[in-house]
Specification:
The protein contains 9 helices and 2 strands. It is mainly alpha-helical. Strand 1 and strand 2 form a beta hairpin. 23% of the residues are buried. This is CCA tRNA nucleotidyltransferase, mitochondrial.
Length: 193
């Protein structure tokens, strides 16, 4: 988290190097800090979630859908809690730019609402029972999903698996048969459009 916080000023900054655009944070991590690939990937994953998590935290936690939040957690993997905390840090820095954040014994005056909304977001994942959903297996695999809709395995598999996992997150007590039916309905409705 310290590494992420130290490179937060580079969040969203894009640079061009050798006619390729890339996030500036990758350049800083690779060339200035000389960190390893694992740390660069972790920071990139966390930064990918900042804007999404900030938007999610702005919603009233009662309005957050289990599947929406679960798919974000699945995207961020085991770093989802760290990403929420880094997002809170970013918002605190944005809202209170004149505070003496680097003062060792200095007292920083901030409103608790910012920290509370991100804490509520973490609590919501626990109350939804999705804190480890990034590890969940699909109850209907890609091969079976394509069989259900009459396709050969190919580019549609990822779309069907996303639909399947969204359904699985929305229906925690759902059965494999119910999920298969939902996939079939999704595909038939998609083809009607």
């Amino acid at each position: 988290m310290i590494l992420c916080a130290s490179v937060l000023p580079f969040l969203g900054v894009i640079v061009e190097q050798k006619k390729k655009t890339m996030p500036a944070v990758q350049l800083v991590l690779r060339d200035a800090i000389k960190t390893n690939n694992a740390d660069m990937n972790n920071v990139s994953t966390i930064f990918r979630g900042v804007a999404i998590l900030q938007t999610l935290a702005e919603k009233n936690t009662e309005d957050i859908k289990r599947s929406e939040f679960g798919m974000i957690i699945r995207d961020l993997g085991s770093l989802w809690e760290t990403a929420i905390k880094v997002t809170a840090i970013k918002e605190l820095l944005d809202c209170f730019p004149d505070e003496p954040w680097s003062a060792i014994n200095g007292k920083v005056q901030v409103t608790p609402e910012i920290c509370e909304k991100y804490d509520k977001l973490i609590q919501k994942a626990y109350s939804f029972g999705i804190k480890d959903c990034y590890q969940w297996k699909h109850i209907v695999d890609g091969k079976r999903a394509t069989q259900l809709v009459g396709l050969k395995p190919g580019p549609h598999v990822s779309e069907l698996l996303k639909v399947q996992m969204t359904w699985q997150l929305e229906n925690p007590e759902g059965t494999k048969e119910e999920c298969e039916k939902a996939i079939e309905e999704y595909w038939s409705n998609k083809n009607l459009l």
